[in-house]
Design goal:
single chain, alpha+beta, Immunoglobulin-like, seven-stranded mixed β-sheet, 3 helices, elongated
C-alpha cells in the first residue's frame, strides 16, 4: 500500500512539472530581427512542422500593415513591406492531423537612415599597374551612401561601361564585388589599358562620383605598354522609346558664327533611378554672356557615347519630361546663344543617366483549402499577456520542480525511517 502511494505521489509531481513548465516553453516567440520601414523583408520562415500542416490562423497579436502570413505543408512564413515602426508579436494556431500547436513570431521595425543626404566621398580608388591577365583591386568609400555602382570609363571619357556589364565589352574579364566597397577585376586584357575605374555612390536621388583610377598595362619589366585600340561597347541596354529626328531648333536657321559667345551651363541635368511608371523632368540652367537669346535641343542615347545620341522631337526647352519605360538611357541638352543675328556654337551638358529599376516580386505561396479543425480555447489576447504567460508558467514550473524534489526527499526519509523501525523490531524479537 505504501509503495502504491509513493508511486502515485511521484507521478503526480512529474505531471505538475510537465503541465505547467512545457506550456511556458511553447509560448516563447521566434524573434526574427530588426527590419527598416518601407523595405522588403523577404520570405522568412518562423515555424516548421514534420507533419503536413492543414491550416494556420492568427490567435493573438498582429503584424504591421502590408506584412502577411503564408503557410504551406511544411512551414509558416511572413513577407511584405512593413509600413509602420514598432515591435510586433503574433501567435498563430497551426493545425496538423494530430492537433493544434502554437507558433509565435516577433520582430522590430525601425526607421532607416535618412535619404537624400549629401554624400561625402572619403576614399577614391587608386590607379593600378598590371600585366595582361593579372588582377587589380579598387577600393572606394563614402558617407551617407545607400549603395555603390562601379563604372569603367575610357581615357577620353567618351565611353562608360557599368562594371556589371564589363565582361561583355572586355572578353575574358572577371568582375567581383559589384555591390561592395571593393571591386576586383581579374584576367585584365590589354584592351583595358588607359581605362579608369570610378565608383558612383547613391542616396535617394542624390549621387556622387569618386575620382577615376587608371589601369596601366605594363610588360614583364614594368614598362607601360599603351594599347592603340579603344574598345567600344558592342551591346548596350535597350529602352522602350524611339527618339525621332527633330526639326532644327527655333531661331537656329541662322548661320553658326565661330566668333559668337557661347552659353554658360550653370546647373547640369541630374541622373536618377526610377521605378516603372514614375515621372521625371530633366532640366538645365544656362545663361547668356551677352544678353542673347538661348535655344535648346535635347538628345538621347542607349549608351553614354554622345556621338551616338539622336535629337528628341519637340524637346526644345530648358526642361524635358522623359518618356522611358525600362532599361537605362542617357540624355544631353545642347544650348545655343544667339545675338544680333549670329548663333554661337552649341554647348552640351554632361550626360544624365536615367535608369528604370524593376523590383523583384516574390511569388506568394498558395494557401491550400483548410480542413475544418476544432479551435482550442483561446489564449492571451495581447502581446503583453503573452509575455506575462512566460513569467507565470516559468514560476509555476519552478514551484512544481521544487515540489517534486520535496516529494523525493520525503519518500527517501520515510524509507529510511521504515528500515530503522523494522531493524529495531527484529532486534527486540531476537531478545
Amino acid at each position: 500500500m505504501k509503495k502504491t502511494r509513493k508511486r502515485f505521489l511521484i507521478v503526480l509531481a512529474l505531471a505538475l512539472c510537465l503541465a505547467f513548465a512545457l506550456p511556458g516553453m511553447a509560448a516563447s516567440a521566434e524573434n526574427i530581427g530588426v527590419y527598416p520601414v518601407g523595405e522588403e523583408m523577404g520570405w522568412i520562415q518562423f515555424y516548421s512542422s514534420r507533419l503536413p500542416i492543414v491550416n494556420c490562423v492568427l490567435n493573438t497579436g498582429s503584424l504591421p500593415a502590408d506584412v502577411e502570413m503564408y503557410w504551406d505543408e511544411s512551414g509558416v512564413y511572413i513577407t511584405g513591406v512593413p509600413e509602420a515602426t514598432g515591435s510586433y508579436i503574433a501567435e498563430y494556431l497551426v493545425f496538423t492531423e494530430e492537433g493544434a500547436n502554437y507558433a509565435n513570431v516577433s520582430f522590430t521595425v525601425e526607421n532607416r537612415a535618412p535619404v537624400n543626404q549629401d554624400i561625402v566621398i572619403t576614399k577614391s580608388p587608386t590607379g593600378e599597374r598590371v600585366e595582361v591577365g593579372d588582377s587589380a583591386k579598387f577600393v572606394a568609400r563614402a558617407q551617407n551612401a545607400e549603395r555603390v555602382v562601379w563604372r569603367i570609363v575610357s581615357n577620353d571619357t567618351t565611353n562608360t561601361v557599368r562594371a556589371s556589364e564589363a565582361a561583355t565589352v572586355f572578353p575574358g574579364l572577371q568582375v567581383s564585388g559589384l555591390d561592395s566597397s571593393t571591386l576586383v577585376l581579374s584576367n585584365i586584357p590589354s584592351s583595358m589599358d588607359g581605362w579608369r575605374v570610378e565608383a558612383q555612390f547613391w542616396n535617394g536621388n542624390k549621387h556622387a562620383e569618386s575620382m577615376g583610377a587608371e589601369i596601366t598595362i605594363v610588360d614583364s619589366q614594368g614598362t607601360p605598354v599603351r594599347s592603340q585600340a579603344t574598345p567600344v561597347p558592342t551591346q548596350a541596354p535597350t529602352f522602350n522609346f524611339q527618339p525621332t529626328n527633330a526639326p532644327s531648333v527655333s531661331a537656329n536657321d541662322m548661320p553658326v558664327s565661330n566668333d559668337g559667345r557661347t552659353a554658360n551651363i550653370s546647373v547640369q541635368p541630374q541622373s536618377i533611378e526610377l521605378m516603372p511608371g514614375d515621372s521625371y523632368t530633366l532640366s538645365v540652367i544656362a545663361t547668356s554672356p551677352n544678353n542673347g537669346t538661348l535655344s535648346y535641343q535635347w538628345y538621347s542615347s542607349a549608351t553614354s557615347n554622345r556621338s551616338a545620341a539622336l535629337p528628341i522631337g519637340g524637346a526644345q526647352d530648358a526642361s524635358y519630361t522623359i518618356n522611358q519605360t525600362d532599361g537605362t538611357a542617357y540624355y544631353w541638352v545642347a544650348v545655343w546663344n544667339t545675338k544680333d543675328g549670329a548663333r554661337s556654337q552649341a554647348v552640351y551638358s554632361e550626360p544624365a543617366e536615367v535608369r528604370i529599376s524593376v523590383p523583384a516580386t516574390p511569388t506568394p505561396i498558395p494557401t491550400p483549402t483548410a480542413t475544418p479543425v476544432p479551435t482550442p480555447a483561446p489564449r492571451s489576447s495581447t502581446p503583453a499577456n503573452i509575455s506575462f504567460q512566460l513569467v507565470l508558467f516559468g514560476i509555476i514550473g519552478v514551484l512544481a520542480l521544487i515540489a517534486l524534489i520535496g516529494v523525493v526527499i520525503y519518500l527517501r526519509a520515510d524509507a529510511k525511517q521504515k528500515a530503522a523501525e523494522e531493524e529495531e523490531e527484529k532486534n527486540q524479537s531476537q531478545r
